[in-house]
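Technical annex B. To support the medicinal chemistry partners, we prepared a structural model of the target in complex with iron/sulfur cluster, based solely on the information shown next.
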Amino acid sequence: MERKTENKDRREFLRGVGRTTALAAAAVVAAILAVRSSRAGRRQDETCSNLGICRGCGEISHCHLPQAISARTAVSAKVAATKR
Ligand code: SF4
């Protein structure tokens, strides 16, 4: 009789652990999706603050506008070419 009670307690404990793990995983996924959505929204709102002149702009390291991405790529290619 006592053994059945122990088995039942163990099963209930394992169910509780399973439920808690599933809830924690769902919370983590929801948080990741919320952060991604927030970042995407910020990128869409981004506007150029330096008349599109990326060279010497203080924003270039984290700017997501196409001209900034192009400028970073060009600088990287130039640096790689000088190392050869
Ligand atoms: S990095 Fe270029 S696109 Fe981005 S804000 Fe500066 S000038 Fe504008």
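Notes passed to the chemistry partners:
The chain has a mean pLDDT of 89.
The longest helix spans residues 2-45.
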